Task: structure prediction
Amino acid sequence: MAPPAQSQRSSSPSQPSGKGEVSDLKSQLRQLAGSRAPGADDSKRELFKKVISYMTIGIDVSSVFGEMVMCSATSDIVLKKMCYLYVGNYAKGNPDLALLTINFLQRDCKDEDPMIRGLALRSLCSLRVANLVEYLVGPLGSGLKDSNSYVRTVAVIGVLKLYHISASTCVDADFPATLKHLMLNDSDTQVVANCLSALQEIWSSGTTTSEEASRERETLLSKPVVYYFLNRIKEFSEWAQCIVLELAAKYVPSDNSEIFDIMNLLEDRLQHANGAVVLATIKVFLHLTLSMTDVHQQVYERIKAPLLTLVSSGSPEQSYAVLSHLHLLVMRAPFIFSSDYKHFYCQYNEPSYVKKLKLEMLTAVANESNTYEIVTELCEYAANVDIPIARESIRAVGKIALQQYDVNAIVDRLLQFLEMEKDYVTAEALVLVKDLLRKYPQWSHDCIAVVGNISSKNVQEPKAKAALIWMLGEYSQDMQDAPYILESLIENWDDEHSAEVRLHLLTAVMKCFFKRPPETQRALGAALAAGLADFHQDVHDRALFYYRLLQYNVTVAERVVNPPKQAVSVFADTQSSEIKDRIFDEFNSLSVVYQKPSYMFTDKEHRGPFEFSDELGNLSIGAESSDTVVPGHRVEANDKDLLLSTAEKEETRGPINNGVYSAPSYDSSLVSLSASQSQPDVAISSPTIPGHAPQSSLAIDDLLGLGVPAAAAPVPSPPPLKLNSKAVLDPSTFQQKWRQLPISLSQEYTVSPQGVGALTTPQALLRHMQTHSIHCIASGGQSPNFKFFFFAQKAEESSSFLIECIINTSSAKAQTKIKADDQSASQAFSSLFQTALSKFGVL
Result:
C-alpha cells in the first residue's frame, strides 16, 4: 500500500507562488480603496478577478477581507457581485469577518438600484451566522415590501434561509404570515411561486409540529388556494408550474366533479414542451383517478401519446428519465401499451442505458398478438456489437418464452443461439434453456439434442457452466456422454473458481449416479472427496451431506436428490408489489429512475456508510489491497490463494467426541490430493435414526472407490497465542509491511446473522475486535461489501499480524488475508481472529 503522493502545485500565471503576491494584492487594493480617479474601477476589476481566481483554486486570500469590503463602495455592479461572492465564501467559516460586512451590506440593501438591493439582500441572508440573525430582520422586512419584484423574490427565499438559521426569530417577526399574504396577492408570479415553495418547506419541516402549523398545511391544500394556483398556472414559469402541480397532486377533491374540473384545467399542460411539466401533470391525473378504475384506464390512454413524444424528442438523458416513468406505467398496465411496441425498438445511435430500458419494456408489452414481431426484433439485437445489449436481448427472448407466448418459435430461436459461434450468446442461451426446461419439460428432447453438442470446454462463464451441468445431471439418461463430461469436469475441480459451479457439479454427479451407476461410480467418489476437501464452506457442507446420505441409505438418498419433479409454474419476482406501489406513489421523482423507493437511497442504513477508522483517518490503500470486492454469490478469481491444506484445516478445528466418524479421503489421479490431505477433514458423529441401521461406512467407501482412512496421530496442542491489547502501529509502517510480507493464510469464514445485522454500523465491529486485542487501521466500503484492515501484535514480542478482511453481508461471508512477521504463528492467530469474528453481534 503505497502512501498517497504529495500533490505539487505547478506554477502558473493565475496562481501566486507565495505569500508575497497576496500581500501585493492587499497593498494594491488598499491604494484603490478610496480612489475615484478615472479607470480606478477597471483596476479594481482586475484585482478582484485575481482574488476570486485564487479563492477558486483553494488559496487562502482571507487576509484581504478588509480591503475587499472597502473597495466595494462603488456603483459598479460587476464589482459588487464579485465582492459578494468573496464575502459569502469567507464569512461562513469566520463569523468575526462576517461582522465587518454587515454595515456595507445593509447600506447596499437601501441602494437606488434594485439589482444591487437584491444582490446585497441575498448575500446578507447567505452569511448563515447564527449570532447575526438580528441584522437580517430589518432588511428582510423592507425587501418583502419592496416595489421591485426581483427584490421581493430574493427576500422570500431569504425568509426561508432565516427560518433554517433561527426558526423562532422568523416566526416572531411574523414572516410566514407576510409570505402567505404575498402568495395570495402579489402580482408577480415568481414571487408567488417562491412564497408557495418557502411556505411548504416551513410548514412541513420537523420543527413546526404545532397545531398552527397543521392548520397552515391544511390551508395550503384547501380548495380556494389550489384553484387559485391552477387558474393562474399558465402565467408561471416551468419550475413554478411543477411546484403548483406537486401541490395539486396532494389535494383530495371532495367529489368526482372536482376531479374532472382539475383535469380539464390541466389538459393543455400535457402538450407542454417541458418534460418536467408533463410528468408533473401526469402525476396529478394518475393520483386523482386512483379510485375510479374506468377513468384511470382512460388516463393511461390519454397520457400515452405525450410520453411517447417526449421519448423521441430531446436528449438521451431526458429520454431515459421519461422512459423510466413510462416503464413503470407499462408494468402496471402492459395491455394499454401493447399496440405501441414499435416505439420501444432500439435505435442504433441510442446509448446503452436507454436500449436496456427499452428491452425491458418490450418484454413487458409482449402478448399473443405481437410476440412474433418482438422476438424477431430481439433476435436481431443478439448480433449487436454492444455485447451487454446482445446479452439483454437474449434474456428478453427467454422472459417472453416464460410468459407462455409462442413458445414453439421461441425455443427454436434459442436453440439457434446455441449454434452461434459466440461465447456470450451461447452462455446466455444455456441459462435460458435451463429455465425453459424447468417450466416446459416436454421440450427436453429437442433441447438436449442441441445441448449435447456443446463442449463444456467452450463454456467459461459460471452461470452458463452451472446451467450446462444442471442439464447434464437432470437429463443424463438422454445424453450419452453425460457421465464422461461430468468426470472430465471433476478432474479439473481445482481449476474451477466458481463455488456455484462446484455446487452444481456435486448435485449433477449425484443425479447421474442414480440413473447410470456403473459409469458414474468413480466420478461420484472423486467429486465427494474433492468437495470434502474444498475450502468453500457451502461446497464442503453439501459434499458432506451427500456422503452421509449415501452412507445412511442409498434409496433415501435418491428420493432426496432426484425426486419426481413438477414443472415450475411461476418464477419469483424480483420486486414485491408493495415496493412497486411505493414507487408509483413517488411518481415524478428519482425513485422511478432508480426503481426503488426513496428510503432505500436516502436512509443511511440502506445507503451504506463509508467510513474510515479514527486511528488512521485517510489511509491510501495500494493496488494490491484495493482489489474489487467480489459479490456475495461468487468466489474471487484467485481463490487458489484461499485454499488451505487439509492438515491446516485440522489445526483450526477442535476434535468432536461422542462417536467419532471421519469423512473419507480420496487418493487417485482424478483428484490431486496429497498424502497429508488424506486425513479426516471434519470429525462427524455418525447419524443414528430409529428403525434404520446405517450401512457400513467401509462398504460405501469401497463402492465409491474411496480409500480407507488411516488413523490420525494425535497432534500436540501448541501453546496458546496471546496478543498485546495496547498494540500500536502507524499507517506508514503498516503500508510498508503489507507490501513486503507474503500472504501467510487466505481463508473464508461465515458471519453470524447477528453479526450481519450489527454491520449496519461498521464501527461496532472495530470496537468488538479491539476487545480481542485486534485493532483496525482502516475501514471502508458500502453495503453489501465492507473492507477492513486490522493489525495485532504478540504480547511477548513485537511480532505483528496484518489482516485484510472483506465482508459481504448478502452472503454472510468474510474473506481474509493474513500476513505475519512470524509465519509459524499465522494459523494460531487465524483461529483467534475467527473466534473473535464469530462472536461479533452475538455477545
The domain at 4-205 is CATH 1.25.10.10 (Leucine-rich Repeat Variant). Residues 293-312 form the longest helix (20 residues). Confidence is low (pLDDT under 50) at residues 1-17, 608-696, 708-713.
